[in-house]
Structure formats: C-alpha cells, structure tokens
Amino acid sequence: MALNSSRNLLFIFTFCLSIFCFSQEKQKITIEYAGIGYTDENIEPGAKVFLRDESLQVHFIHKGVNMWCDKAIYYEDQDFIEAFSNVSMKQGDSINMVAKYVEYSGKTQLAYAQGDVVLTEPQSTLTTDKLYFDRTRQLAYYNTTGKVVRDSSGTITSQIGRYYMNASKYQFTQDVVLVNPDYTLNTERLDFFPDNGHAYLFGPSTIVGETSKVYCERGFYNTNANTGYFQRNAKIDYDNRSIEGDSLYFDRTRSFASATNNITVTDTLNNSIVKGHYAEVWRSKDSVFITKRALAISVQEKDSVYLHADTLMVTGKPEHRITRGYYNAKLYKSDLAGKADSIHVDHKSGLTQLINLGRFSSSDAFALARKPVLWNIGNQMTGDTIHLISDVKTEKLDSLKVFNNAFLVSKDTISEDGFNQIKGQRLIGLFRDNELYNVDIIKNAETIRYMRNDNNDLIGIQKSKSGSINIKIIEKAIDEVRFINQIDGNIFPESDFPKSGRRLRGFDWRGEEEPKSLDDLFKDDPPLILPKIKGLEDYVPPEEFVDDSVSERVEDAGKSTPEKPNKAARNLPKKEDKPVEKLKPKPTKDSTEVKKDKEGQ
To answer: What domains does the chain contain, in order, with CATH numbers?
Structure first.
C-alpha cells in the first residue's frame, strides 16, 4: 500500500500520540520512530507495519528497553511486536543484543530472538542461533548450542545455556567445553561468573593441559588466577604421577597441588604408591610431601615393601626417585622389617638407609630405643646406621651394612630367656632368596652363643672375643661361626654361666617393636583426627525457562483477545530433555582403611 509523506506523518503522529497517552496507564510498547507506517489487514486485522527510512531504523521502547530494526509489525491488541532485519536490542548501558529476527511481548516481557544472535555484556559475548529472554527475571536462555567468548578465560560452548543478568552469571549444561590457550575444560554443567572468572563444575569434569589433567565430579576453578578446588573422586595427573583425595587444590601457574584426607599419590613409572591424609605436590621440583598416617608402597610382583613415618617426602626425577621417611619411620615386607628415626630409599640404586638422627646424643635416655633396627627371619640387627641393598631388577635383598655399634641378636630356639648375640664395630650381611645366610662382624667382635647338638640338647654357652667373626646361617639358625684373630673364648655349662653375664654390653632385645603385619606399622600412632571438609555446595537442577510465573504471564496475556491465538505463547522453549543428574557424595573411607590396602598383592 503506497502512502504519501503527509499521510505517513499524520498516521505516525496520531498513532504515537494515542500509544503515548495509553502507555501512561498500561505501559505498552511505544514506537519512537519509523520512516513509513501503515495498517496491513492481510497480515491480521489491526496489524501495523513500520519501515525504516534512508537515515534511521524503526525504533521502539518498552520499560527501559530500546529496540531498532529495519521492519516491525505491531499487534496493538496483544501489545506484541515482531522485528525484522538488523535487529538491535539494548537494555541499560551494559546489555546489547543483535539478531535477524526478534519477537517481544509487552504484556509478558518475554523476547525471542533468532538468526545470528549476539548478546554482549561488559565481560563476555554470547552467540547462538536462538535466544529466549525473560525481562522480569532478567534471564536469557538458549537450547540450540551457544558460544561465550571471554578474552581472559577463552571460549565456552554448550548445548544449553542461561545468563542471569542481575547476578552476572552464566549457567551452561550438556556437552560444556571451555577452551583456553593453556587447557581445555569439559563438564556436564558449568556455572560461570564473567566478572571474576569463577567457574563451578558439576558432574564428570576434566581440565586437560599440556602437563596435567584434572578429573572431578564437583569442582571450582578460578580462570583468572588458574587455581582450582576439586572433590568427588577428584584426581590430578602430572606426567607419570597421579594424586587422588577427598579434597584437592590445584595451582596451574606454580605447578602445585595439595590434597586432604584419604590421599593416594601413584608413581606409574616407578610402580610406587604414597598414601596419607595431607599432601603437597610440586611438579617443577619433582617433590611430594605427605603426612598424617603417611605410607609409601614400593609395589613389587611378589612382595611389596611398605614404609610408614610421620612425614614422607618423595623427590627426584622419575628415573631417580628418592623416598624419605622422617620421625618414627618403619619398614615392612613379609620377610623383613625395620625401624629408625629416619629411613631413606633410593629407588634407582636399591639402597635403603636406616638413620639415627644426630640430635639424639648417646646420653639421651631415648637414644638407645631410637637406634635403627632391622629384623629378618628371627634375626635382629641394630647399629648407629644401617644400609640395606636390594637388586632393583630381581626385587630381592642383596646385602646389608651396619655402621658402628653393630649388634646381631636371635632368640635361642629352646630356652625362654636365652639369646644368641654377636657384636662388633661393623656388620656386613649377605642375602640369598631374601634370607640372611652370611654375616661378617668386623673389629672388636664379641659373641655369646647357645651351643646345641643335633637333638637340640644344650651343650653349653660359648663366650668369645676376636678381631672379626664370620657366621653361616642355614634355615634361619646359626650353623657355623668362625673366629678370626681370636683373643679368648670358652664354652661353659649352663649351670656355671652366671645369668648376669649372659648379655653383652649394649644388648637390647626389641622383638616387641617388630612390625609383623601391615597393621603393626600404625599401632604406635596417636589417634587420627581428620579435618571435616565442608566442601562445595550440592548440585541444584537448573530452573526451567518456562516456570510457573512465565506460564501465568503468558496465560494472562491472551485473556484480552480470547478469539485470537495468543502470540505471547508461541516460540516458547520446550522442557529440557537431559537434565544433569544430582550427584551423591562420595563415601568417606575410614581412616584406618589406608593401612589395610594391599596394592602390591
């Protein structure tokens, strides 16, 4: 329909005047500008069409929202408008949206945008094909795949998304992917705050970078600071090392991670495991610190080695790891046990050192008890320092060295309080099939030995001194003793050998301290009290875009024109088909379970 300029101006002036007056009462949509306007009965009785001119677009407003387009159709009786071509919508000074097509209801304040939709706010830009906007709740929603771009944190894509304008919060669900130059994050739901870069993860989630991979089922990540906090089956993989625990903290910039409660650190290259209830891991330093029921496990095919101490440290490159146990350190395997103030294990060379720290002087009442001790098949060996050497290829014991104040003790097989004893300055022992079979006592050697015949009858008690002693052990018992540079010696009948002389100076039988099972490693520990982890908030299902308030508004919008289809009800999104399931908290292991695990078996 062609109209001349005067008729156009008169129509627009009259229409705008009537709308303006009426809007004071009803706050209906107001047409601010149009180049051409006319009524088109072919569209719908009463439908008004507005076109732009050469200089300006059609402009209309409603309750603080401004919208511009090349063409608009306004249905006055339903206060509903359709905007076509180069549509731009602006709310306040911060929210802008452009699209090819927009519908807007002045009664419900619901908008629907389609075609190259771009929503911009100060910290990010959202692009999608279809977008729904509820001005009453200040909620934008899409369900046809969308992408959010933020300079500092990268790009986020998802099948479904929401933007809460009042809270400045995005909520992404289904196939959520955040791509950053340093990492890629995948999750089932992500709540993201663009103002501070905080991201909350729900459901199975991974953060994969060049040097690390994080998995959790509930987590928080600060995309600005590159730090995170993770729970529910949380795990961090660093090169050949993985960290698991009830609660994990991660700092990507510093290559640092810490863990709390029920922790397992696995070294896949060296086939070893460290457990405890608090740990720190420095990737760049190849360092692990762990305490609170700390337990290191060297996993071996037939017989794993367990090391427990108040504090454990694992350092060194993957090809040369060293494990150090400090304070009340204990060692256990099926045929060997040890105890010392400090135990160090070099996994590359197979050297295990049992050390008595120098801070305990010989006058210290507890110094004797703190001396390193080693038990093997009924034999107890003590000294100031003990070195145990293993063959790293065969995983079998090779030899041991006891430095200074070496003392070898074994209980006599028959008598209740008889002990075979050998002491000297140093001791060197050799193993065959993990059993001690040869011992050399070097310098200032002394011995007390219970001599028995083939029927195990006691012949007498031998007491000797010599420069050195060589001992052969067969089937866990001393078979032969050779004295080198013997000074003196004799065999006494038991009745003639005073009980006061049946102990060599420095004798200390510590059999009650020997760990005879994995459980025994922890028997002297104080009660373990673990901190209570408050954790992240539980998962709450996303709200539906069409909730009860929207349904009521849409229903009310159609009451004024019951004979016509309710335009406010069209193009409403359907209910989501695949909500993220609510996660159940991971059961917390009892603190004593850590000592019952048998990874090496």
So the answer is: 196-318+525-540 (2.60.450.10), 329-514 (2.60.450.10)
pTM: 0.78
Q: How far apart are CA 419 and CA 262, in angstroms?
A: 43
pLDDT tens across 138-156, in order? 999 999 999 999 876 689 9
Looking at the predicted structure, is the pLDDT value of residue 253 above 70? yes
* Alpha carbon distance 337, 353 (integer Å): 13
CA–CA gap between residue 540 and residue 45 (Å, rounded): 47
H helices present in 386-453, as ranges = none
Residues in the chain: 601
CA 38 – CA 31 distance, rounded (Å)? 13
Question: Cα–Cα distance between 524 and 309 in angstroms, integer?
Answer: 11
Beta bridge partners of 322: 315, 346
Closest CA to 281 of 292, 294, 265: 265
The SS3 assignment for 592 reads helix
pLDDT digits (tens, 9 = 90+) for 6-58: 444 444 444 444 444 343 445 799 999 999 999 999 999 989 999 999 999 99
Cα–Cα–Cα angle for 551, 92, 163, rounded to 5 degrees: 50
Using CA atoms, how far apart are residues 272 and 123, in angstroms rounded to an integer?
46
For residues 33 and 18, give the distance between their C-alpha atoms in angstroms, rounded to a whole number.
14
